[in-house]
Design goal:
The protein is built from 15 helices and no strands. By secondary structure, the chain is mainly alpha-helical.
């Protein structure tokens, strides 16, 4: 098993060297370079080795990972590197969050300034569709780890909740695609986890952006209904629209029952706006979602 620690040490040395190359280079690295390929491979290898160490109950492996401050290097590469490296960093963080088993190690990971920096830098991961998908997967993985204890690592002294706000930002970026996406489902799951934590600071931190999330869901719900009506002659699209309507309506119900008053109130308001939209549709044909939900 000593070879596991040795392999991780060698991978950390290689990652440090690659990071120093990036720091010395003032030019933008072109896609497809050897540096980019090596960097992505080493980041993936580091995360895989740490996960193997956890599975083998080798505490020394994670301890070495923490001692070498590898996560900070990875976060810096996620901010500065090309798209493929950003994606590798996000996948590596998700792999770590999913596989760390020991409580102390999990707390060290979740409380890391590197994780907080990635969440606060959410806009950098939202413009590219594939990167956004990987970022949302990380958000969902982190949100599964939320509980009354770990929430303290995500809600800062300034009452910011970067995990929650990143999910709202991603949801807004996805837009109103009527037939749903795994990304939207990941955002909704993340938000429900955030709103379900029984913590006063978390509830206060969610208050500012929770209505924006419900607003986006309301628009998507109206758009899905609109699309379903337009697809009456296409059984496949009609089935997809109906499934999305059901999923979004279920989310509204769960949000209304959450521990976060801002989300609960916004869910009730959104449901009322959707009801108004449906009433307008019945009376005069499919109403524009913007008109029926404009007050949300």
């Amino acid at each position: 098993m000593a070879s596991l620690e040795r392999s991780l040490g060698e991978a950390c040395d290689r990652l440090d060297a690659l990071y120093r190359v990036r720091q010395r280079s003032r030019r933008v690295l072109k896609p497809g370079t050897r540096w980019e390929e090596d960097c992505g491979n080493v980041i993936g290898r580091v995360a895989a080795l740490v996960a193997r160490g956890e599975a083998a109950e080798r505490e020394q492996v994670f301890d070495l990972f923490a001692e070498r401050r590898v996560l900070q290097v990875m976060a810096a590469l996620g901010r500065e590197g090309p798209v493929s490296v950003k994606q590798r960093v996000l996948r590596a963080c998700a792999l770590l969050a999913q596989n760390i088993r020991r409580q102390q190690a999990l707390y060290l990971l979740l409380s890391s300034p590197a994780i907080d920096a990635i969440l606060r830098d959410a806009p950098a991961f939202l413009d590219d569709d594939e990167t956004r998908c990987v970022f949302v997967a990380l958000l969902k993985t982190l949100s599964v780890r939320l509980d009354a204890t770990t929430v303290q690592f995500f809600v800062s002294d300034d009452r910011a909740f970067p995990l929650h706000d990143a999910a709202v930002g991603a949801l807004e970026k996805i837009g109103e695609e009527p037939f749903g996406t795994p990304e939207r489902a990941g955002c909704l799951a993340t938000l429900l986890h955030c709103w379900g934590v029984d913590d006063a600071n978390a509830r206060r931190a969610c208050a500012g952006r929770a209505p924006d999330a419900l607003n986006a869901v309301g628009r998507a719900l109206a758009r899905a209904f609109h699309a379903a009506v337009d697809a009456l002659d296409d059984a496949y699209l009609l089935q997809g629209g109906a499934a999305e309507i059901e999923d979004l309506a279920t989310f509204l119900r769960d949000a209304a029952a959450s521990n976060t008053p801002a989300a609960s109130h916004a869910a009730h308001d959104t449901a009322s706006a959707v009801a108004a939209f449906l009433a307008a549709t019945v009376v005069g044909g499919p109403a524009p979602p913007e008109r029926a939900l404009g007050a949300v």
